[in-house]
Amino acid sequence: MTLTAIWLLPLVGGILIAFIPPRFAKWLGVVVALVTxxxxxxxxxxxxxxxxxxxxxxxxxxxxxLHVFYHxxxxxxxxxxxxxxxxxxxxxxxxxxxxxxxxxxxxxLMLAMSxxxxxxxxxxxxxLFYVFWEAMLIPAYFLLWLFGEGERPARAAIxxxxxxxxxxxxxxxxxxxxxVFTGQQTFDLAKLATIAPSANIQFGLFFVFALAFAIKTPLxxxxxxxxxxxxAAPTPMLVTFAGVMGKAxxxxxxxxxxxxxxxxxxxxxxxxVMPALAVAAIIWGALMAIAQRDMKLxxxxxxxxxxGFIVLGIFAxxxxxxxxxxxxxxxxGIIIPxxxxxxxxxxxxxxxxxxxxxxxxxxxxxxxxxxFTIVVLAALGLPGLNSFVGEFMTLLGAWxxxxxxxxxxxxxxxLAPVYMLRMFQGxxxxxxxxxxxxxxxxxxxxxxxxxxxxxxxAIGLYPYALxxxxxSVAQAGLYR
Amino acid sequence: MTLAAALPTYGWSQALADxxxxxxxxxxxxxxLFAIVADLVLPRQRRSGVVAMIxxxxxxxxxxxxxYRWLYTQGGPAYSGMATGDSFALFFDVLFASxxxxxxxxxxxxxxxxxxxxxxxHILMLGSIIGMMVLASATSLVTVFLGLELLSIALYIASxxxxxxxxxxEAAAKYLLVGGFASAFVLYGMALVxxxxxxxxxxxxAKQVAGTAASNPLLTLGIVLMGVGFAFKVSAxxxxxxxxxxxxxxxxxxxxxxxVGTKAAxxxxxxxxxxxxxxxxxxxxxxxxxxxxxxxxxxxNLMAITQxxxxxxxxxxxxxxxxxxxxxxxxxxxxxxxxxxxxLFVYMFMNFGAFAVVTLLAGPDGDRDRLSDLNGLYRxxxxxxxxxxxxxxxxxxxxxxxxxxxxxxxxTAGVSAGYTWLVVLALIMSVxxxxxxxxxxxxxxxxxxxxxxxxxxxSSTLAIALSGVLSVxxxxxxxxxxxxxxFGALPYGGP
Lengths: 480, 495
Known about the structure:
The structure holds 2 protein chains of 2 kinds. By secondary structure, chain A is mainly α. Chain A has 19 helices and 2 strands. Chain A folds into 2 domains: 1-268, no CATH class; 281-471, no CATH class. In chain A, helix 11 packs parallel to helix 13, helix 11 (235-260) packs antiparallel against helix 14 (319-350) and helix 13 runs antiparallel to helix 14. Chain B is an all-alpha fold. Chain B contains 21 helices and 2 strands. Chain B has helices at residues 3-6, 12-21, 23-41, 44-72, 87-114, 118-137, 141-159, 166-197, 202-209, 217-233, 242-249, 252-277, 282-304, 310-331, 333-361, 377-380, 382-396, 402-416, 420-444, 458-476, 479-488; strands at residues 77-78, 83-84. In chain B, strands 1-2 form a two-stranded antiparallel ribbon. The relative contact order of chain B is 0.10. Classes of the chains: A mainly alpha, B mainly alpha.
């Protein structure tokens, strides 16, 4: 029942909160999110390292006619994302301004989305995974549409939904195909990983699954929904939307595409196409980030680049790469929300997100500038902060697979300081230009990012604490 | 030898046994006659309420009878094999009776608002439901045609029920002409099949043509002609042209009723005749239906995008949904037919619910079914906005609503039977469908709109709320309904 509580509690809480008076919504939301975080944290603490397989499993027949089970479990891959999701939900709810219109609906939808994402990470049954995967789109759509910023949030919302659905509905063919073509009539992920259909079928099924995950991640060249969606998303939503939902795609690669299809070779070999796309995403995202003036868009494109590292690590097909990818999923989930929060706070105080219209903010908001420095340095992969370890491991894994992948991927490491520092230095230092900021960071906001900052240092200085508990797909024995 | 001895004996026990097999239909016929009499003799101002009560009671009684027989008796052939009370028939009896109750619930306040004569309306609905039930129980081509005509004729009249509304009249005329055309096709096909098989009893046809070569032109032509007629009735493309016009013109409760009922009845007919009577010619009719299914999914989904009338939009959506269901029929077997029955049953709740919400918008002068008429529904009546959202998400096939699980079962059957291309096409077109279903939600949740409250009568509210709850509950817990559907598909769920 523990794992059920992790997704059911925010869902039920969210539905309730949507219909209570707005003034209680935020605090009740915080309570629900905190309790969920407590449960998720408890599971993580009780998690047995070195045990390869699913723990805390719950299995109940759901649709016996199709051999569908309500089957939950966590392992060294998913537990981190479950905890990250719970943590970021707390931060997102706390970051919601009380002045927002219909704040109760907003928080209700946020919790529902968080429930859907938790379900994706917890599900061990393919149909259950798919149900959560699709269901989390519904609150995401309403959040983007009803609470979106900018000129046409409805347009961004429908673009996001149609893009994602184009992938995930085709994935349904894959889900059914796994059931039929393996000949075993099972949706159990652990069982499916031990039986693979013929290479040609794997080739086709890999495509439909990878398409869905690549759109969600997003992977170059399927990322075009991301800038408009991230631009439209309100900041508290971005904390989990950018911080966790993108990871769902990467998680899908790691949980389904890699172990279920060990040999997806037909007209070409997918095992080489994916890392090539990942490298392209790293470079393309970085170049696009350099070209942006809107800081929100800049961070959005930097996310494309960073997700490229994760996918590169996953398709390195070795322990370093995949452990690095998991670590990097957590890292990216810590850094991206912080970046978006800072961008929003700066925009709040100056009235603009255009980095070229701002300069010399640091003397007038010293604390903000100081904390922002840490986040920016973490984002560009400075040794000693969390992102460095993850990116290093993914590149190491890629090097083992093929040195050329690592060599090109490393260019992304060089480009990251270019866009990050240009944004940071341009806005913070130099002769003061542009609007005068209305104040420094507030104590509450500082408290909000403190856990993220602490984690950046903690993981950066002692990554072993996490990696020793992580299993890669290879270690978990999920593919041969 | 006397004449009496030469006549076949038909004693009381046999008569009662036959009547027992079709008892859900028989009870409903009784109640319909009762309603007609009540409508004649009661004073004018009391008529409508009483007739509505009789209709609901009769439907509930029929529903109860069907459930009782389902649980405790063994269904079998009746009337020398002309009809049957098997589980397939009973499943549809339950479906049609439930649909009838829902229809009466939403039409009562609608008819009062528009000042229409209520008595005739309910009686027509009962007649149409009886036709549908006959169709589902038919095991002879003659009974099939009988049921088909009974249900159609009642609906021709019902479509034109808004007597002073030109569009309603147009719809009735169009439906009558096209429907008659379709009936003629079916009849022609039946005649040819009879010519080839020498019998109209469907199980006997299966035996007779088992040895016949597939190239028998009578049979092939018969299948094509019947297939065309059936495609008309399920409103599958390319025989769908009448659907949007008739759906738009007919009063909304009628549209809601026939969008679910006619479709379900026509699918029952397809399964009875094709899967039951011509299993040996499966490749022929499967090819025909696969073509129809593919066209329906493409045409229905693409045409729905540009509609600004909700009735037309739902009409095209219904055309597309017919395509999805056909996949299950083509796949056949235990999984395929169970998926079809499951989908038809849950389609009742999601599609009927969507129409029912539109019914509430109607004014005394006519139906208000533009997309913009939904403006600000959330402000006007938020539970209805939430329910409408559930219906649209379910039609679009989002989990955890029934629409998703229905599609999952249909498509699993399709892939298992080797129709992967059809399933891929269906899923690609589903992406398109999400666009227009979500388009309906835009006005529902728009904040910049008038906000005078929208009142819903208790019975309508109950019917819509029940549909909404079941649209989610039957998805979260599909097992029981799926078992029922499998049981219902048993007569045709061979290997």
